[in-house]
Amino acid sequence: MRYKFLISFVFLFSIVGTLSAQQTKATAFANDTDYDIQDSVAIKVRNGGTLSAMIVRKKNDTGSKPVILQYTIYVRDKGRDLTSIKESADHGYVGVIVYSRGKRFSSNEIDPYENDSKDAYDAIDWISKQDWCNGSIGMFGGSYNGFTQWAACKKLHPALKTIVPYVANRPGMGLPMEHNVFVNPNYEWAFYVGSNKYLDTLAGNNRQRSRAMQFRWWETGTAYKKLDSIDGSPNRWFQKWISHPSFDTYWQDMAPYKTDFAQINIPVLAFDGYYNDSQNSSLYYLKELQKYSPKTPFYLIIGPYGHFGTQIGGEPILNDYKVDPVSLINIKKITYQWFDYILKKGTKPEVLKDKINYEVMGANEWKSAPSLDKMSNSFLKLYLTTTPSGNFYTASSKKPGKTAYLSQTVDFADRETSNNNDYYPDPLMKKELDSTSGFFFISEPLKKLILVNGSFLGEIKASINKKDIDFGVTLYEVLPNGAYFHLSYYIGRASYAKDTTTRNLLTPDTIETISFSDTHLVSKQLSKGSRLLVVLDINKNEFSQLNYGTGNEVSEETILDAKEPLQVNWYNDSFVKIPVLR
To answer: Is the Cβ–Cβ distance between 152 and 173 less than 8 Å?
Structure first.
């Protein structure tokens, strides 16, 4: 289970390609008689930068047209990338792919995320001035390519008319850290995209090396910042990232932040998945756009997809779960229908019934809502009580009348046991859970069918004998047959719960209120007789940073800082609020 977690999570940051890690130059592409291909274009940008690009037009296409731009750090097999932009030409556009600074034929240094905002603006400016461009540009793509679209909007170029991000990443939020907790898979991703001008598939696919490194780190109790010393290869990107544990200006400058969203006035169509690991990144953009630019039209299509599944319109089997047939969509068809709608005054895609369009798992149907908040019309508020309920404790709709707490002891020097092991949703359906750590709170059986619709949130009341904790909250449906269906989860650092930009340490032996939100959005029909299960635990495992609670920089803490075990008192006025549609 734990190895499967690592492999699944690593795939979030890797794109499978056929390019050898040792490739150093472009290869020939044969017999393109139907296209005019420019495969070695250099675009000069500010601060001495050069971007490598490819451009495809239909042969004998002499007029100016709208341009479909993909902007990416992933330099894959030339034929594969050309095929992608040829599709744009086949749909009546000029297809362009631009690679991030330092990639392919660019002589600059590779620094993921850091230059894409300004460079994308300059690339769009250059494209808009070419005689084959009619002044209208649209962008699409997934993961990193989704991030670059939003990065291009930090300062909006007038030629950029629309973006279509799939599972867009937001650096500093979801990766390489989630709610200020650094997660390990980004470590090898840095080599995958940064080691050469193309993709280092040798490093990216070396699971044995990655596992050996992190398990060695876990076993020895070395400082997190020493991961590359254990690995034996300096990782300057990793070192730079962990030097910014707060969501500070380093991360803020990479993409729109707060009032930057106010000037974004172009229509947006986003795609996402309930089980996309970076979902909180992707939906962050839409939430902030709605907040700062409420008149800007945006649409979301979301369903039971993972990170890669979203980008191909879904997969019949997701983490061993058979999805509803109706959830599978033709994402490319919808994307180009959208481009025709915005750039050619065509017809809006039929699937867009409202702003938020989502598939209800278990119901095999699509629903829509005018906003993320309107997906639900009430909440189930469940208190995490100290009252036993079989092998668990009661998640009660009534607030306890008397204050009480459950005590948990966690020894950070103990490497034989780990905590919060089951929060990752793979597989989605389980016959049993790891109950060796944390506390489990179960509700009464549902009296009728309901839809869990949206992102759950909550408020944890706790006292600890240290200055900080990393914790997890996982939400399950317990089916009438006793199986567990993973709905959503949260992991985060308590000291950043109030403000991700500034660390606020906890006061030892004092009851603190730790609020959390931005959990993974989900829509699922729960049957009559099902129950809801909430798992609350300290995050202590080999898949992410280990917060020893000293209050010092977490990446510098070692097993020598473990000392007295962590003592947590979880109070019974803690609660979760689960959005439902009745």
So the answer is: no
pTM: 0.94
Phi/psi zone of residue 118: left (φ > 0), alpha (ψ -120 to 50 degrees), beta? alpha
Instruction: Identify whether the C-beta of residue 339 lies closer than 8 Å to the C-beta of residue 66.
Output: yes
Number of H helices, E strands in the chain: 13, 30
For 160, the 3-state DSSP assignment is strand
CA distance 71 to 98: 5
Beta strands in 173-281 (DSSP E): 174-175, 177-178, 181-182, 268-275
Query: Could you give the C-alpha distances from 452 to 282, 379, 430, 435, 479, in angstroms and in order?
Result: 20, 9, 19, 24, 14
Pairing outcome for strands 365-369 and 356-360: antiparallel
Closest to 520 measured CA to CA, from 450, 570, 470, 452: 452
Whole-angstrom distance, CA of residue 145 vs CA of residue 345 = 25
pLDDT digits (tens, 9 = 90+) for 495-528: 999 999 999 999 999 999 999 999 999 999 999 9
Amino acid at 384: L
pLDDT of residue 62: 87
**All residues at 6 or more sequence positions from 210 whose CB lies less than 8 Å from its CB, including other chains:** 6, 10, 184, 185, 187, 188
Backbone angles phi, psi at 46, to 5 degrees: -65, 165
Q: What is the pLDDT of residues 450-470, one digit of tens each?
A: 999 999 999 999 999 999 999
Rounded Cα distance, 95 and 53, in Å = 11
Q: How far apart are CA 491 and CA 522, in angstroms?
A: 16
